Amino acid sequence: MFRVKNLTMLALLAVLGLGLYGCNTSxxxxxxxxxxxxxNLNDQDMDGIPDGEDNCPAMANNDQKxxxxxxxxxxxxxxxxxxxxxxxDDNCVWVSNxxxxxxxxxxxxxAxxxNTDTDGDGYDDGTDNCPLIPNPTQSDIxxxxxxxAxxxxxxxxxxxxxDDNCxxxxxxxxxDVDGNGVGDVCEGDAxxxxxxxxxxxxxxxxxxxxxxLDMDNxxxxxxEDVDGDGVDNGNDNCPLVPNADQADDxxxxxxxxxxxxxxxxxxxTDTDGDGxPDGEDNCPNVANADQLxxxxxxxxxxxxxxxxxxxDSTNYQPLLTPDYDASGEAGGLCLGCNVExxxxxxxxxxxxxxxxxTGLALxxxxxxxxxxxxxxxxxxxxxxxxxVISNPSSPLLNxxxxxxxxxxxxxxxxxxxxxxxxxxGLLGLELLGLGLEDGQRFLSxxxxxxxxxFDEVELEFAGLLNVNDETRVHRVCAGTDPxxxxxx
Length: 488
Fold this sequence. Notes:
Blueprint: H1 2-21, E1 24-25, E2 37-38, E3 316-318, E4 324-331, E5 334-340, E6 354-361, E7 365-372, E8 384-390, H2 399-405, E9 406-412, E10 415-421, H3 423-431, E11 440-446, E12 456-462, E13 466-479
Antiparallel strand pairs: 1-2, 3-13, 4-7, 5-6, 6-13, 7-12, 8-11, 8-13, 9-10, 9-12
């Protein structure tokens, strides 16, 4: 009997020893000991759940949601529905569908596609992270699958937004050293997007990229009218494409401007009576049955205020640094002649220009040129080249005089290989419907690069008693002439 009692006592002492071993005192160095034993906690995401128990220890998720019950919390689970298809590639992120069947090919799997967009933000309810509240950006800063527009706890730290002193950054402890109502972790950057509040275009909604589609200084993630067309996102049938008229010819709820299935206008209205419906007419208010658009900018020549255009997306492209260098000088008997700032003609700045001063050119000349930085970079695939100049008061802009002294010279490795007067080229462009702003001209000439090899083009003003106070040279342009439509 005595032996049994001893054994029982030893067993109780062993259990008590193991229990104390798993705890530390909360104040082991305080006088007299006496601290309460507490678990040894580590909570790196500050969501109030120890890392050892947290199914997403590095991302705040106070609710510990785990839809597919795989032990990985939804906010850090690359496959939320557990169908072995990563979220980024899954056409039904929240509904398991390993086969990814998408009968109507709309990018939404059949398993979650009800073809309904209740809030009208452009996202079907099956994929919309806020199906009842418009949020065309689908912002979800805590990655919990609930869009910010309808998430009561944006940072998932267990503190409701209305009570959270840093609603966009997890801070379960709500520490606020200076007592100003702004949590320490977001002081100076309320939304925690690494953009200071003073310059943030959405200071209370995270948007590190600061995207602003309509350039109204309100970031897209907090802009009630993202595309700036005057129609709020929730009512806009194209929330990301401006379409103030909200035209929807096929009645599918998606505006013509952003409807991939829209095949063209059904409205036969032809305001200018040129036989081309307004929806297809590049000048709907000015008759132009030929639809001629010489600079390829989508605006017909008869109503194009921009006229001739020289940029990367039109018929003629500018010669720019670093691919091209520019230089110029005066020569011969030319009093008061010089070339100022020649490099400006290749700097891609529409506001800058070079200046040719030709005070009194008795038998002299002034020249300006653009030269390929690489001598092996010969011109190819073009049929016209020239210089954009301006000076409304100059006789050089009188077409009847240009042929007397304006010449284009082609050079290869510094040696002249051909030349052409510019008056014919200019006249040809005028007949094609091209022109510049008042007082500007495109002094150019046709050229066949299959027969003339050159890497440098030069504009020369020369002639007897050529008087011109100042001529500005804006750009050097090369490209292909637009093709005129065949006569009906």
